[in-house]
Amino acid sequence: MPKYPCVRKKRNKWYYRLQYKGARIEQGTFDTAEEANQARLDHLQILQRHKLPPTELTVEKLCKKSLEEHERVYNRYTTFVKNEAVCRHYILPMLGHKKIGKLTPNDMRQFQRYCIENKTPAVAHYTMKILKKIFNWAVEWELLATNPIKGKLPPAPYTEHSTLMPDKLRLVLRNVPLREKTIIGLGVFAGLRIGEIFGLQWENVNFDNNTLSIKRQYSAGIIGDLKTIGSKSVIPIWSQLAIVLKLWKLQCGSQTWLFPGKKEDRPMRPEYWRQIQWTKIKKQFKLPADLRFHDLRHSFATILLSLGADKGDVQQLMRHKSIKITMDIYRHLLPKTLNRTLNFFDDLCGEKSGESSSLF
């Protein structure tokens, strides 16, 4: 059932609320949320038409209000920075000067068409997603009667990311310095995100059990929470990766951070390492230009699934919230693993034991 702003259910009936001149107006009762929402919109339009002056708020001011009162408060700092950049670079140049009360669904369709024609599919989708959310807050704050972006947005485009093939992986790991070998190893053999790697402290590494405790990330100069609650976890690590970590501990020069920065109390900035060292490694070993460091995490899951690893185990190692997320991302590998699974019928037919190879 769709969710509507300011619509609530009480004792099997639906109500809507309005805030007008400091007083709360509550109306009911309705049998469905849709009826309550439509009544609320009609009521709000009457108030705006007859009693409320048309809002002079521009899209620029609405974006700033949304960023300060919602994005900064409820999202991680890195998400806030990303969404602020989307507003500044993509939304405000085209719409910033427009008054929100005069925007129409046709204006939004034209803006979406502009994004699709001039931006990558992923950027166009994310820009419209952020803009729709901002207008939803305007409706929640009763600055607008309805969201000018109508209906569902088209689904985000699927992007097939590059993976680091085993032959190239061996070539890189055998020829890079120990620090880079350790960082790349944590990405491709433990599936860690780059912020999680640079947020590791030596107390998070248990050499007795060969485990890592993932507790924090370092991103945009902020040592903070992980991407999701499920990302905070204790995971096993491959024995050969543990050996590399032991060697690096003897050389790193820090008893606190795995990858210390110039200041002893801070780790190295992951953005700096990625921009300088990762770019250098890709050029030196002729890796694909579009190979992101995050693609090492995808390589980790891709290699395991292609070798027939249990999908539930891969989900736990990737620290995905559900196995559905794992399968949505790596569904393209299923035909290979499914064919391998169907070979179990050979046992049923007795093919491997030399018996009749047919059940029919």
Trace the largest sheet across and list its strands: 1-2-3
CATH superfamily of the largest domain: Intergrase catalytic core
Shape: elongated
Order of helices and strands: EEEHHHHHHHHEEEEEHHHHHHH
- How many H/I helices? 15
Strand content: 5-15%
Give the strand tally: 8
Helix content: 40-55%
**If you consult CATH, what is the topology of the largest domain?**
hpI Integrase, Chain A
Tally of separate domains: 3
Question: Radius of gyration from the CA trace?
Answer: 27 Å
- Oligomeric state of shown chains: single chain
Intertermini distance = 48 Å
Main sheet makeup: 3 strands, antiparallel
- Mean pLDDT across the residues is 81
Can you identify the CATH class of the largest domain?
Mainly Alpha
Structure characterization notes:
- This protein has 360 residues and is mainly alpha-helical.
- It contains 15 helices and eight strands.
- It has helices at residues 33-50, 59-74, 77-95, 105-118, 121-140, 166-173, 178-188, 194-198, 239-251, 270-284, 295-306, 311-318, 323-330, 334-342, 345-349; strands at 7-10, 13-20, 23-30, 205-206, 211-214, 217-219, 222-224, 233-236.
- Helix 3 crosses helix 5, helix 4 runs antiparallel to helix 5 (121-140) and helix 7 (178-188) packs antiparallel against helix 9 (239-251).
- The longest helix is centred in the middle third of the chain and has 20 residues, at 121-140.
- The chain is elongated.
- The protein starts with 6 loop residues before the first strand and ends in an 11-residue tail after the last helix.
- The mean pLDDT is 81.
